[in-house]
Amino acid sequence: MDTNEIKDLIEKYNRQTATSAEKKLVEEWYDRIDGASLTQNNLEDATVKQQILSRVTASIQNTKTPKAKRIRLNYGLFFKAAAILIALIAGTYIYFNSTNRSQIAATSVKANKITIVPGGNNAVLLLADGSQIILNNTSDGQVASQSGVQVIKTKSGELLYRFAGNATAKGATINTVSTPRGGQYHLILVDGTEVWLNASSSVKFPTAFVGNERRVEVTGEVYFEVAKNKTKPFIVHTDQSDIRVLGTHFNVNTYADEEYQRTTLLEGSVEIKRGDKKALLKPGQQASLNAKSDGIKVNEIEDLSEVIAWKNGYFQFEKSDLPSVMRQVSRWYDAEVIYNGKIPAKQYSGKIPRNVSIAKLVEMLAWSGIHCKVEYNQITVNPK
After folding, report:
1. pTM of this prediction?
2. Least enclosed by CB within 10 Å: which of 194, 241, 314, 330?
3. In what residue span(s) does the FecR protein domain sit (predicted)?
4. Contact criterion met (CB below 8 Å) for 372 and 379
């Protein structure tokens, strides 16, 4: 059993055409890693990779195909497991078969010209007086004090708002935290609500919540874990809707270059309001809004981990088209993406750590059939 046969099995698994025995093998292997985080250290641990490759090869060689049976399948698990398999096997193959690197002929990275690096904690705090604080260049500790509220950068790199001494929410000023392309940030508002910003995103909020509601405004992609307060609802305003909650976990994707604005609920309940239309979401549901129409479409989401993969340090694609995949890559690596030829009408599934180098990223993408050439700050995609 060689690496190409293993790769074929993974592809069958992704296409849901694998036999029961092959599906069982993938599930058992996924259970072995138990959804472990795929950090750069994991991918570069030669001992771990060799053990995994040996085990998978031996298991496939010793597996006999049983008679076909009708089984109710958990496709979300299949895609999740197969995505991790692709990432790890790709890393194993690349490191342990260096003489065969020419097989990925369409993938090219000019090492002496690389200026693209993965993103990281990078954000700007805009205070009410118009002054700006570049957070990644700021030392830990208090960075500002406004209307009785301290703004503190913690040792872990978060931005924390808290009342100074016995101060209360009697007055407030407006602050904005924004991330550039290739940036992300985590902040905790004065009420305890936690906010995570993806690349090229922003949240505008009062330093203290005065009155009968807690209102913030967002752009880009933001994940919230809202502190519960039954007497003071939390409202997230976007350019297309108001999202009203009491205490819950949800993700808002409102990038201008995406066809739909999507709000996905993980815990609790939220109400989406758009003009005179409303929709109430339950956990596992997603509301989609299109600027070309005034409706609200609600869908069930099978795998919520895909929606917040960015927050947990991954790219995760499940039946995604090529432009959708590359838009995420472009934002995080702050790179221009261009297409050499016609964009194929294909769907891609996979899971890749967001901290990998651009060279490793394009090697992994090549295993899914996405071939790229990287030079300076530009990624050229050669669709096939």
Report:
1. 0.73
2. 194
3. 176-271
4. yes
Residue 220 lies in a domain: no
CATH number at residue 371: 3.55.50.30
CA gap 356, 329 in Å, rounded? 11
- Residues 41-73: tens digit of each pLDDT: 444 444 544 555 555 455 444 444 333 333 333
Judgement on whether residues 113 and 125 belong to the same structural domain of the protein: no
- Whether the per-residue pLDDT at 323 is higher than 70: the answer is yes
Is residue 187 one of the residues assigned to a domain? yes
The token pair that represents 286 in the structure block: 């997603």
Which of 93-102, 134-143, 290-299, 338-347 has the least mean pLDDT? 93-102
CA distances, 304 to each of 309, 334, 356 (Å): 9, 26, 23
What one-letter code names the amino acid at 316?
Q
User: What are the CA-CA distances from residue 60 to residues 5, 29, 140, 305 (Å)?
Assistant: 9, 11, 52, 28
87 shares a domain with 135: no
Of all residues in the chain, the percent with pLDDT exceeding 90 is 55
| CATH classification of the domain holding 244 | 2.60.120.1440
Give the largest Cα separation in the chain, rounded: 72
Q: Domain of residue 41: give its range.
A: 3-103
For residues 80-107, give the mean pLDDT.
40
Q: Domain check: are 185 and 202 in the same one?
A: yes
If you ran DSSP here, which 8-state letter would residue 302 be given?
Answer: S
Q: Are residues 25 and 92 in the same domain?
A: yes
**128 belongs to a structural domain:** yes
Q: Final residue of a domain: which of 163, 184, 211? A: 211
The β-bridge relationship of strands 336-339 and 297-300 is unpaired
- Residue 219: inside a domain: no
d(CA 222, CA 206): 17
Of 263, 381, 376, the residue nearest 329 (C-alpha): 381
Residues 331, 200 contacting (CB under 8 angstroms): yes
- Across 340-357, b (16+ Cβ under 10 Å) vs e yields eeeeeeeebbbbbbbbbe
3-state secondary structure of 376: strand
Alpha-carbon distance of 141 to 155, in angstroms, equals 8
CB neighbour class for 173 (10 Å; exposed up to 12, middle 13-18, buried from 19):
middle
